[in-house]
Amino acid sequence: QLQLVESGGGLVQPGGSLTLSCAASPYDLNYYALGWFRQAPGKEREGVSCISAASGNTIYTDSVKGRFTISKDTAKNMVYLQMNDLKPEDTADYYCAAYWSIKSVCLLSKINEYDSWGQGTQVTVSS
Q1: Shortest CA distance to 59 belongs to which of 113, 107, 24?
Q2: Is there a cis peptide before residue 26, judged by omega within 30 degrees of 0?
Q3: Helix, strand, coil content of the chain in percent (nearest 5)
Q4: % residues pLDDT > 70 (the chain)
Q5: Taking 80 as the threshold, does the pLDDT of residue 26 lie above it?
Q6: Nearest 5°: phi and psi at 30?
Q7: Strand pairing class (10-12; 121-125)
Q8: Is the dihedral of CA 100, 105, 108, 112 positive or negative?
Q9: How far apart are CA 113 and CA 108, in angstroms?
Q10: Per-residue pLDDT averaged across 60-85, rounded?
Q11: What are the angstrom distances between the C-alpha of 99 and each of 13, 115, 125?
Q12: Maximum pairwise Cα distance, the chain
């Protein structure tokens, strides 16, 4: 399993932007699928985006398509989620997660495939 630590959350006005970062150690990110999940109070945890290990193919949940971008820097062992045009319904605790993979696709709906999790960072979108 990877050790994952998120940062970058905070309070932002609707329409604003935030970039979340996730530092991973100690293994090579080239062998892991990487994802961002979020959970609002009283709600189930949902997949936001993931990026595959083998090809860098990405998946986004419909509610964030065109607004959020997932990326990774394997040399720095970092994963990012750029969030633009934030909406109040984006308010949640955000988690990065990973599982070992050499496949060309990542899994977003099957949350139990992810066996490495960060502690989360809070994002609040409010005027």
Answers
A1: 107
A2: yes
A3: 10, 50, 40
A4: 100
A5: no
A6: -65, -15
A7: parallel
A8: negative
A9: 9
A10: 96
A11: 33, 6, 29
A12: 42
- Which positions ≥6 away from 41 have C-beta within 8 Å? none
pLDDT of residue 30: 86
- pLDDT, average across residues 86-102: 96
pLDDT band with cut points at 50, 70 and 90 for residue 40: very high
Structure tokens at 36: 């961002």
Please choose, from the candidates 50, 22, 32, 38, the residue with its C-alpha nearest in 3D space to the C-alpha of residue 108: 50
Burial class (CB in 10 A: 0-12, 13-18, 19+), 98: buried
Q: Both tokens of residue 58? A: 């990405």
User: In the sheet where 18-25 sits, what is the strand order?
Assistant: 3-7, 18-25, 78-83, 68-73
Phi then psi for 19, rounded to 5 degrees?
A: -120, 120
* Residue 110 pLDDT greater than 90, yes or no: no
Q: Is the pLDDT reported for residue 6 higher than 90?
A: yes
The four Cα atoms 113, 118, 119, 122 give a dihedral, to 10 degrees, of -100
Query: What does the block give as tokens for 62?
Result: 């419909």
